[in-house]
Design brief:
CATH class: Mainly Beta
Number of helices: 0
Shape: globular
Radius of gyration: 13 Å
Helix content: under 10%
Distance between the termini: 18 Å
CATH architecture: Sandwich
Number of domains: 1
Strand order of the largest sheet: 1-2-7-4-5
Order of helices and strands: EEEEEEEE
Number of strands: 8
Length: about 100
């Protein structure tokens, strides 16, 4: 299940210690993305304007955890009204 907001994308995952591969693309050449799982920062990446894959190993979690993609609010670009945008093109769960 996906939930989108202006600066965040959330996925509910039921998996303990799995890896997730995400296909991401940023609106700008160096868009920072923070990956959180269960409110814990698990990885920080920077994506460009071309599609790229990012694999993150999720920590052990009881029940359903939420993987959240966040773009830091300090990123600003006056030429682009939506500088923090990131696109999610695919998700693969590895058990």
């Amino acid at each position: 299940m996906f939930r989108w907001t202006y600066e965040r994308a959330q996925m509910r995952l039921m998996c303990q210690g799995c890896a997730v591969t995400l296909r991401l693309r940023g609106r700008n050449p160096a868009t920072p993305v923070d990956l959180y799982y269960g409110n814990q920062l698990v990885q920080q990446v920077q994506v460009g304007t071309a599609w790229q894959t990012v694999t993150v190993t999720l920590p052990d979690w009881q029940g359903v955890g939420v993987l959240e993609l966040r773009t830091p609010t300090h990123v600003a670009d006056t030429a682009d009204p939506y500088p923090r945008g990131v696109m999610l093109g695919g998700v693969t769960l590895h058990r």
